[in-house]
Design brief:
Number of helices of chain A: 3
Oligomer: homodimer
Largest interface: A-B, 23 and 23 residues
Largest sheet of chain A: 5 strands, mixed
Number of domains of chain A: 1
CATH architecture of chain A: Roll
Shape of chain A: globular
Strand content of chain A: 35-45%
Amino acid sequence: MPSSDLAAIYRRYIDCLNRQDWDELHRYVADDVRHNGRPLGLSGYRQMLVEDFRAIPDLAFRIEHLVCDPPMVASRLWFDCTPVGMLFGLAVNGRRVQFAENVFYEFNDAGRIRNVWSVIDTAAVAAQIADAGLN
Amino acid sequence: MPSSDLAAIYRRYIDCLNRQDWDELHRYVADDVRHNGRPLGLSGYRQMLVEDFRAIPDLAFRIEHLVCDPPMVASRLWFDCTPVGMLFGLAVNGRRVQFAENVFYEFNDAGRIRNVWSVIDTAAVAAQIADAGLN
């Protein structure tokens, strides 16, 4: 698959997340998807995303950098949001926070994500909460 | 620059770090390099690396995933090491810890790194220290 095709698929995946269009998630995520080594499967992956939007009602995925080299995609995502309660074990409680996620994806031959290796900058969130004097 | 050339340059950069060959660092890192938005410059970047090896004498950079799409490189690095004292604000104190860094690089036209956007999985280190009953 050409790199440009994989980039287009990835951007449609991100659009799908931002629409919370969970019935379309199977177009982008494999049945046997693993996330940071955990065999979540499509249903577990969907549940993880549903819970993310419950914790962060104004959650939006914004691509800051996209690096494609099939079958791999690397994306730096940027979040600017107001989690309602706890996030990453931190009492955010409706404060606005900004943070990055640097994430690698491996796609299968059908163009679906089968492996995700994600690191979220939780330290940045902790620093913002500390600055706000909430902790 | 072809993707394969940039991948080769990046692998030589990682070899340079693992040799702690700081006099060669300028071959891979631009004078005006920025790290997570901070204008470190080559000397500040070198100092950061020297301090990393002081904190972690057995530090070794191992590439787990490499995604090249010039002028960008994304790399998932894996660390298995024994920091002597504090690391990321955590009292590691000689325990063995394992963690990932997901990092994006932008190269300039001369094939040198001019921007780095890094996220380190500090939460994984915190969890390993907590499991060890040291905190």
